[in-house]
Amino acid sequence: MANVILVGAQWGDEGKGKIIDVLTEQSEIVVRTAGGNNAGHTVYLGKDKYVLHLIPSGILRPGKVCMIGNGVVLDPIGLVKELDGLEKLGVKVTPANLQISETAHVVFPWHRELDGQREVRKRSNKIGTTKRGIGPTYGDKAARVGLRVIDLIHPVRFPQRLKERLEENNEVLRALGAQPIEYDKVLADYTAAADRLRPFVTNTVVHLHEATRRSANILFEGAQGTFLDIDHGTYPYVTSSSTTAGGACTGSGVPPNRMDRVVGVMKAYTTRVGEGPLPTENAEISDLLHGMGREFGATTGRARRCGWFDAVATRHASMVNGIDELAITNVDGLDTVKTIRVCVAYEVDGQRLNHIPNDCEILARCQPVYEEFPGWETPTDAVQRWEDLPVTCRHYLLSIAQMTGARLTITSVGPAREQTMFL
Ligand code: GDP
Ligand code: IMO
Ligand code: MG
């Protein structure tokens, strides 16, 4: 399968976790390259549900090596909790199947506090972040004041650097009227986490290059989605990392000329959690999906906003990621819909737009131009072969893939591994 970059083609939660789990079967290594524990990737094995936040979804397949790349921001306390959670569920995680980059940046309690404080101050313009400290941690990385995993596990350097960073950040927190953070407690908690994580920490770039030299299949696990990308998303309503295909290179140290394919994952409709424009948002489809108990956030439990499929957006995603192949998930979510709508263009100020505008205020005013497709109005969740899907369903899926501009290769009709069809 060669080296494959997997990206979300919408606003996150496209079902990447499930598709990663499926594709891991053909990979030797799975690498997370961006984001932090703001991500929530769901994988079902039988009736057991696993939600991965920092650890690659590939961890559930024995014998695969998972890596947390340099582009990730890592909350050590969150990661230890995740390791414990997996252990309780019977998943063995050892340095043989999990490696952590020395140069990933570390999330601290002041990052989470600042994340929350900034949101409160933004009032009605808040981003609706996951409050995991993601923005402030990437901010410190760019400002060159961040601490990295290599600092966290250094017994002498860590206490000193922690003190410096904590003093500065406590001044900021005090000025904002927030509680300062206690040095001794952070030192104790982070030292304990560092002791637990130290055996996993390594120079992942070197391992990845050795793997590419012997032509091992590597899967680059995307987090979040194209429109949450710091450069290509609906700024400022985005996350703080490069969630598009380029981020797989910078976030892992594997260069572009070693990448073979980009797989884009998208739902058969659209969802978004958090604030920001969502042109095809629609109450009817939101109520339908929420009524089925679906589309609640895997990380924060928030109800996701839902809407019709937006081909203007996914076409843009295909462009900036270079998507070769598409996986369409949650097809079964539309099983009861009589007439399905697809946004093929936007209209704003009397003009028709075929591209997503960069100005978020304009995007927020865009009205979708819809094309209608007949629904299949029959359950698809038990279908096992592409040819056995209703003709109307296949027509819909091939049409949205064509509008997006890539080849449909995977269709998913349920959360389980078995509910996956390859074309
Ligand atoms: P990710 O962040 O992209 O990994 O996606 P999430 O795990 O946050 O959200 C996707 C949700 O859709 C999860 O609850 C998955 O179990 C579920 N899911 C994925 N594919 C399908 C599908 O084809 N049908 C159904 N019913 N659920 C799916
Ligand atoms: P996965 O990997 C969906 C959203 C938040 C918010 C914005 C910024 O599961 O697809 P942040 O905490 O990152 O500063 O929040 O980004 N967001 C996600 N939405 N899926 C995710 O990850 C997300 N990670 C962040 O809701 O709107
Ligand atoms: Mg998710």
Write a structural description.
The protein has 423 residues and is α/β, with parallel strands linked by helices. The chain has 3 domains: 4-101 and 200-263, Adenylosuccinate Synthetase, Chain A, domain 1 (3-Layer(aba) Sandwich); 105-197, Orthogonal Bundle (Adenylosuccinate Synthetase, subunit A, domain 2), CATH 1.10.300; 266-422, Alpha-Beta Complex (Adenylosuccinate Synthetase, Chain A, domain 3), CATH 3.90.170. It is 33% helix and 21% strand. The protein has helices at residues 16-24, 76-88, 109-122, 134-142, 149-152, 157-175, 183-197, 204-213, 245-250, 283-291, 311-321, 360-365, 391-404, and strands spanning 4-8, 29-32, 41-45, 48-52, 65-68, 73-74, 98-101, 105-106, 201-202, 218-221, 261-267, 270-272, 305-307, 309-310, 325-329, 339-348, 351-353, 367-374, 407-412, 420-422. The strands form 5 sheets. A 10-stranded mixed sheet has the order 9-7-5-2-10-1-11-15-19-20, sandwiched between helices. Strands 14, 16, 17 and 18 form a 4-stranded mixed sheet that branches. Strand 19 and strand 20 (420-422) form a beta hairpin. The radius of gyration is 21 Å and the shape is globular. Bound molecules: guanosine-5'-diphosphate (GDP), 6-O-phosphoryl inosine monophosphate and magnesium ion. 6-O-phosphoryl inosine monophosphate binds at residues 8, 12-13, 38-41, 127-130, 132, 134-135, 223-225, 228, 239-240, 273-274, 298. 6-O-phosphoryl inosine monophosphate binds next to helix 4.
